[in-house]
Design goal:
By secondary structure, the protein is α/β, with parallel strands linked by helices. It is built from 18 helices and 16 strands. Pfam families: Amidase_3, Peptidase_M56.
Length: 561
């Protein structure tokens, strides 16, 4: 669906630019200016939707590992449509029925292939006809019969002349076609033809092609009458007129001719009117503002209340070593009698470090020895890397939303003295079983996700459940931990029901989920809201609400595990 959205933006740009040409610029006799306007705006229409701007948003989150810069996670806002995944054997799969998107894609590719094949066949036919050429004056002359469909025309460096024409007439035709060849007009037509193949559904692609072809003739006619008498030249055009379906070659004269005759005898436009072409710049700016992509970048700042990190690149090795020794001595002296929450506060006081944001850091929690009896929670931010999963109603990828939520959940957990292991700390792809195996040293496992469904279905079924759900795996492989997972899930669900502003599923959902199979610890999957619905998305996109959800999940974890 992203491809169709891109084509829609390109089509909108071509419409804006072409209307400006048709109603304003086409009236002027500045044919060279018109040529570059048409080609330039056609190419620009494909470029503008590919551009992007970055909007930074600062959020407080724990610092990550040395391999990840404590910086930025980009969320692409390309405003695409989301797909509704189903959990079948633990994998996100598209609904079984053939989707409308697949049908449209198949139709698009079929027509595109037909048009592209037709274009190449036409070019091949012309090259085949030109094989018996005569090289003269750096051009390749080909004599053709009066019945040839592309007589008195040119393509690339080939010039096709009707062998039955008188010499004086040939001279004018050759002069005309030489101007086409030297100006490389065939390149304009090839670009326009390829754009037509790509945007075959867009009527403005055909309008661009016809306007480029017509403007070529206006431009060459204006130069030809500087050498030949205008009325004699116009009479020759009328006498040699013929219909043509080959839009990728330049014909000396082809029907219809009314507009061409009008431009041939039109009085040249006032030179000062060239300033009107500058008004095209606001059009470009408007199209950029309307169709450019936006990237929202989360800049994760170090939280003063959660500083168990040290700035590795800011401290000499001796300082790091000294800090480690002080840490170990503090643990050995106090861990036996001090409560876990007080112990963590003491450790924060021991590690003397300046708060530094947006630098490479070492996550101190991952480097320190595990405190005896300290609880370890494994948090799995769903998807990542090439698996972008679904998208929100505004186009934000689920993989980025889950990673942001995981950082917040980690931060809130560490405030409670809970050790946290993240299956991923950056935008990387992990298999479902690899995620589970990364959390084998924890005493509980939580996989974070967001629900979604196709936008068109979301608009038709506004009453579909769009709140928070908790899943456990029902596979037999879950073994003895299945009962504990259900107990864990029920406690989290019970805690989540205390939230206000979003609905929570009444009961625990049971499904076959690969990421939770073969569980060695109590394991659940939390769908934190349906991001295809505007109200639900706005709720979970608010960091305050996400923190509330995370703390309620932790309440359930502390009572259920």
């Amino acid at each position: 669906m992203e491809l169709f959205l891109y084509f829609a933006k390109v089509s909108a740009c071509t419409a804006v630019f072409y209307f400006f040409y048709h109603f304003i610029l086409s009236r002027f006799t500045f044919f060279s200016f018109n040529r570059w306007y048409l080609i330039g705006t056609l190419v620009l229409s494909f470029i503008i939707p590919l551009l992007s701007v970055t909007v930074k948003r600062e959020v407080v989150s724990p610092l990550t590992t040395l391999q990840q810069s404590a910086g930025e996670i980009a969320i692409s806002n390309s405003r695409g449509n989301a797909m509704d995944p189903e959990y079948i054997d633990g994998e996100h799969t598209v609904l079984n029925q053939i989707s409308l998107e697949a049908i449209l894609m198949a139709l698009y590719v079929l027509v595109f292939a037909i048009l592209l094949t037709k274009l190449f066949i036409g070019i091949g036919h012309i090259l085949w006809k030109s094989r018996n050429y005569v090289y003269k004056d750096q051009l390749k002359y080909v004599s053709v019969s009066p019945n040839c469909s592309f007589k008195n025309s040119s393509f690339c460096h080939y010039l096709f002349i009707d062998q039955s024409l008188p010499e004086k007439v040939k001279e004018q035709v050759i002069h005309h076609e030489k101007i086409h060849i030297k100006a490389f007009h065939f390149m304009d037509k090839l670009i326009a033809q390829l754009c037509k193949c790509v945007l075959w559904f867009n009527p403005f692609a055909y309008a661009y092609l016809n306007s480029i072809d017509a403007n070529h003739e206006y431009e060459v006619d204006a130069k030809s009458v500087l050498t030949f008498d205008k009325r004699t030249y116009a009479s020759l055009i009328l006498n040699l007129a013929q219909p043509s379906s080959h839009l990728f070659i330049n014909h000396f004269s082809k029907l219809p001719l009314k507009k061409r005759m009008h431009m041939l005898f039109k009085k040249p436009s006032n030179y000062m009117k060239k300033l009107i072409y500058l008004t095209a710049l606001p059009l470009v700016i408007i199209c950029c503002m309307a169709f450019i992509n936006q990237k929202e970048v989360f800049v994760y700042m170090q939280s003063p209340a959660n500083s168990l990190s040290i700035a590795a690149h800011q401290q000499p090795k001796e300082t790091i070593k000294k800090t480690d020794l002080r840490f170990e001595s503090t643990v050995s002296a106090k861990q036996a009698n001090m409560p876990e929450s007080n112990l963590k506060r003491e450790l924060i006081a021991v590690v003397e470090t300046k708060q530094i944001s947006r630098i490479n850091t070492i996550n101190f929690a991952s480097q320190m020895p595990v405190i005896k009896n300290q609880r370890t929670l494994v948090i799995d931010p769903g998807h990542g890397g090439k698996d972008g999963a679904t998208k929100s109603v505004t186009g934000i990828l689920e993989k980025d939303m889950t990673l942001n939520a995981a950082f917040i959940l980690k931060e809130e957990a560490e405030k409670r003295g809970i050790r946290v292991v993240l299956t991923r700390t950056k935008d990387e792809y992990l298999g479902l079983y690899e995620r589970r195996n990364r959390g084998i040293d924890g005493d509980a496992f939580i996989s974070l996700h967001f629900n979604s469904m196709p936008i068109e279905r979301a608009s038709k079924y506004p009453n579909v459940f769009n709140g928070i759900e908790v899943y456990v795996s029902v596979e037999a492989k879950a073994g003895d931990k299945l009962k504990e997972s259900k107990m864990f899930g029920n406690q989290v669900l019970k805690s989540l029901k205390n939230i206000k502003g979003i609905t929570v599923r009444d009961s625990l959902k049971e499904q076959s989920l690969a990421v939770l199979s073969d569980a060695l610890v109590p394991s659940i999957l939390v769908e934190m809201g349906n991001i295809s619905f505007r109200d639900s998305f706005n709720f979970v996109n608010d960091e305050v609400h996400i923190r509330k959800i995370c703390n309620l999940i932790l309440d359930g974890y502390e009572t259920g595990c």
